Amino acid sequence: xxxxxxxxxxxxxxxxxxxxxxxxxxxxxxxxxxxxxxxxxxxxxxxxxxxxxxxxxxxxxxxxxxxxxxxxxxxxxxxxxxxxxxxxxxxxxxxxxxxxxxxxxxxxxxxxxxxxxxxxxxxxxxxxxxxxxxxxxxxxxxxxxxxxxxxxxxxxxxxxxxxxxxxxxxxxxxxxxxxxxxxxxxxxxxxxxxxxxxxxxxxxxxxxxxxxxxxxxxxxxxxxxxxxxxxxxxxxxxxxxxxxxxxxxxxxxxxxxxxxxxxxxxxxxxxxxxxxxxxxxxxxxxxxxxxxxxxxxxxxxxx
Length: 303
Known about the structure:
Elements: E1 4-9, H1 16-32, E2 36-41, H2 46-53, E3 57-60, H3 71-79, H4 88-95, H5 97-106, E4 114-118, H6 119-124, E5 132-135, E6 146-148, E7 166-171, E8 176-183, E9 186-195, H7 202-206, E10 211-214, H8 221-238, E11 243-251, E12 259-266, H9 276-283, H10 288-297
Parallel strand pairs: 1-2, 1-3
Antiparallel strand pairs: 4-7, 5-6, 5-7, 8-9, 8-11, 9-10, 11-12
């Protein structure tokens, strides 16, 4: 197409800085691919700016609430602008972890035992046997995620919790962290993520040297194939479009082959050249410029 692409980035979610990095990287790659690119730091005037610019396609590099949960997708549908990544329904369901877990279980995808509760209830009584994980129902980049272990004396939800009253509690799965990139409904491969302390939190994700990515993941062939199959099944069950990323815990503490547990599907995965999805694409021979160009050509709109 090589036409006019508006790249949405920034916004006002907790993942603003991550989005700015993704958007800048994608804008550079699209220019290298011959596209006319306009960069937009998304704000309340987004509809007006898009009306003035008249792009042919919108590259959605927003992360977190408003940009990843169906809100901006609904705006773009209303405006009749083709956009990258998943549509309204898939974005909304994937972003709300309790809803996506229901979809996964209905399609035979194993997940850890979980319970949607409140901050007050968690502090009054453990919702699950320790160790367990607490997380906000609708945040990304591991914001608010904490492991509650036996012997912890502080209340699970402290004064620094800023994610609302709803809390998702999940049984803690020991073992290893795996992720799978899915492109056009087909998995590109499996990555194992290793961190210094075994917890893939915000610093481990985005700090230099915070994690190591092993491609292909050095796991039992049976579980590798299962991770691929479950990721494709989850992508299709949610109705995702374009590129998604499925995150797993792999419990091999009793030996291999171990047990896989789906954590979530990310419909707007990080898109710098060293992010997980571009790394897996490169492993398959798809360079970063070709990846973002394909995403633009794959853009869609229901209208």
